[in-house]
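Exam prep: given the inputs below (a chain plus molybdenum atom), describe the expected output before reading on.
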Amino acid sequence: MSGLKGGKPDRKLVAPSREIVSLERRLFLNKGLSLGALTMLTGCDVTDADSVQKVLWSMSRWNDAVQAAIFDPDKLAPTYPESAITQPFPFNAFYSESAAPRLDASTYKLEVGGLVREKSSWTLDQLYALPQSSQITRHICVEGWSAIGKWTGASFKTFLQHVGADLSAKYVGFKCADNYYTSIDMPTALHPQTQMTFKFVDQILPVRYGFPLKLRIPTKLGFKNPKHIVAIFVSNENPGGYWEDQGYNWFSGS
Ligand SMILES: Nc1nc2c(c(=O)[nH]1)N[C@H]1C(S)=C(S)[C@@H](COP(=O)(O)O)O[C@H]1N2
Ligand SMILES: [Mo]
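Solution:
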């Protein structure tokens, strides 16, 4: 009990962080490895919170590179019939449904910036004039649920070409009206199913699902599908994301 009696706390008595516990579980389940074995393999004391962070981030970046390398830009996510649409479709955000931001359609402007030729902003009428199509795809949330929805909007690739985006840049970042933010790799931005979404099940996007604009990316996990987008920018620096910066894997796609 010496560590609890004032002075310097004994590190071994400090409860392991969420990351360490989940890393240990994943290692054990996937590879039959313990933290002790990982310490031997990496030469790092992974029971120490600082070094475990370093190991985790380097593993995570390696994981991003592997996922990017195996990402097939032409492989389509499964699509479903209208009868498969989940009703009611779940709401999710880092706050409760009543706190979702209410944007004014008449004053809304989408900012477009970074490595693009046309840095002008877009009104909702201008966005709605883009050619549109619909998809019925599955949204998968890391919190353990998935649901099938129908989303209608414009091809994000067409939009990026239209604004003269540097399509050889590495990242596209999104800023949202609720201060949420996320970013995706350019190959995913150009994927044929990546959509600037204006409608959910044939109705203008309700507030809870991201009015007036969300990105629907059926090849990525739910948290990489930003709602209430107010700015889109192209960059060669990884813009990170709300959950990504707290340790969720950045690529999170298939
Ligand atoms: N702006 C914004 N976008 C967001 C989120 C958020 O909190 N704010 N949450 C993400 C997560 S974790 C999920 S699962 C989906 C939920 O989308 P839905 O409400 O349409 O089901 O939105 C994603 N996009
Ligand atoms: Mo999610």
